[in-house]
Design goal:
Layout lengths: L8 H31 L4 E2 L2 E2 L4 H16 L4 H17 L4 H17 L3 H21 L4 H16 L6 H17 L3 H16 L8 H11 L7 H13 L3 H13 L7 H20 L1
Antiparallel strand pairs: 1-2
Helix pairs in contact: 2-3, 3-4, 4-5, 4-6, 5-6, 6-7, 6-8, 7-8, 8-9, 8-10, 9-10, 10-11, 10-12, 11-12
């Protein structure tokens, strides 16, 4: 392209060619920078994070809380998980969204009959739990649900992976240091399950499991799953009378409305365990 300006046209033509040449070099670089910025996560500007739309994220999180409260219907838990994914894109720096996403992912993974969905849910739960811990290392929720998802992922391989055992132990121990009574002694429940399920060569120890579960009783008056796991542990070491006491406690305890789904699950398993004890 050339532009003529009378007798000086050739001089201007050369200058214009140089300018256009420089522009042609700059445009691809700008386009590349724009492309990279469009495909990365939250934008960091002057040491801050562009979190998108925190108000919309908060609204989605509140809606997800309501859905999770009805998690006994697995589809409600799935919807909660989907909403929290959306909320995370709008407020990536939110600790509450991160640990709640990890919690919902764990529930879906632990209850779905679909193997692919299970594996994907636990993987997502681990990633979101790790993010929560990075955001707020001094709070228990992120550590707990990260550890729970490690356990869920490992459960189907009978905790055969040494790193999984260490990961679970680390996260649940972190919860105990931060808040020993967190969620009615649930970290003691997590450690008790770990030592019950892990192979002996990787640290599995039934008596150690019982010790942790019994310590949890101090905080777990209303934790049905804690009492159920203790009953199962007693059964494994032939303490059937003690197992029956824990079973009867589960069947007669008051329901905490926030944990109705877990209570019903505990009651169903406690009844089956009681029948096994009676037939032996």
């Amino acid at each position: 392209m050339t532009i003529q300006f009378g007798q000086a046209g050739q001089k201007y033509s050369v200058k214009v060619k140089k300018v256009i040449g420089r522009l042609l070099l700059i445009v691809p670089i700008v386009a590349l920078c724009f492309s990279v910025s469009c495909n990365r996560g939250p934008t960091e500007v002057a040491g801050t994070i562009d979190t998108g739309n925190p108000k919309a994220a908060a609204e989605k999180t509140t809606e997800a809380d309501g859905l999770y409260a009805r998690r006994e219907d697995l589809d409600q838990a799935r919807q909660a998980l989907a909403l929290l994914r959306q909320a995370r894109t709008e407020d990536y720096g939110s600790y509450d969204i991160a640990w709640k996403l990890s919690r919902s992912a764990y529930y879906v993974g632990d209850h779905t009959p679909n193997e692919n969905e299970r594996d994907a849910a636990f993987k997502e739960g681990i990633e979101s739990g790790e993010h929560a811990v990075k955001l707020q290392d001094g709070k228990p929720e992120g550590h707990f649900w990260l550890g729970a998802n490690y356990g869920g992922s490992a459960k189907n391989s009978t905790l055969s992976n040494l790193s999984s055992v260490e990961d679970i132990r680390r996260e649940m121990s972190a919860v105990l240091k931060l808040d020993e009574g967190f969620q009615s002694g649930s970290a003691y429940l997590g450690l008790g399950q770990l030592y019950l399920q892990a192979p002996r060569m990787l640290g599995g120890d039934k008596q150690k499991a019982i010790d942790y579960l019994e310590k949890g009783l101090k905080f777990g008056k209303d934790n049905a799953l804690l009492h159920l796991r203790l009953a199962e542990a007693y059964r494994l070491v032939n303490r059937d009378a003690d197992a029956l006491k824990q079973i009867e406690y589960v069947l007669s305890m008051k329901i905490d409305p926030a944990f109705t789904a877990e209570y019903k699950e505990a009651v169903d398993k406690a009844q089956k365990l009681r029948e096994e004890l009676k037939t032996n």
